[in-house]
Amino acid sequence: MSNRTYVCSVCGEVRRQPAIYYDRKGKPSRPAPLCHETEMVSLEKGYAEAATKLDAPGRVTWLRSGGLIVQEPGRRWKAAISTREIERARDQLTRHLASQ
Ligand SMILES: [Zn+2]
After folding, report:
1. Domain encompassing residue 61
2. What pTM, to 2 d.p., does this model score?
3. Ligand 1 center–CA 4 separation, angstroms
4. How far is the CA of 59 from the centre of ligand 1 (A)?
5. Phi, psi at residue 22, to the nearest 5°?
6. Sequential pLDDT tens for the chain (100 residues)
7. CA 77 to mean position of chain CA atoms
8. CA of residue 36 to ligand 1 center, whole Å
C-alpha cells in the first residue's frame, strides 16, 4: 500500500495518508481523511509536488483558483496561481490530452 498526499481546501494543511482504492462498485477502501469536517483532496504526483512547494495559505489560494499545475523546465511541477500560469497550465493540459 502506498501513501498519498492529501490537502485540506479550507486551511491548506497537507497530510500523507495511505492511498484509497475503489472496488468495482466504486466503494472506497477507507474514508477520505477529514480536516475542518471536510474531506481532504487527494493529489496525484505532480500536484503533490506543486502543493508541497507552497505554504498553507498559498495552497488555499491555489485550490480556489482551480488547482492547476504547470510544468517547468526539468520536468518540475509548479502550482498555477497567476492568470498567466493558469493559461499555460490549460494549454499544457490541452496538448497533453490531445497527444493521448
Ligand atoms: Zn483544514
Report:
1. 3-98
2. 0.85
3. 17
4. 11
5. -115, 140
6. 689 999 999 999 999 999 998 999 999 999 999 999 999 999 998 999 999 999 999 999 999 999 999 999 888 999 999 999 999 999 999 998 999 8
7. 11
8. 4
How far does residue 92's CA lie from ligand 1's centre (Å)? 30
Q: How far is CA 65 from the centre of its chain?
A: 12
The DSSP annotation for 38-88 comes to EEPEEE-HHHHHHHHTS-HHHHHHHHHTT--EEEETTTEEEE--SHHHHHH
* Alpha carbon of 8 to ligand 1 centroid (Å): 5
Confirm if 40 and 15 have CB atoms less than 8 A apart: yes
Helix, strand or coil, per DSSP, at residue 8:
coil
How many domains does one find in the chain?
A: 1
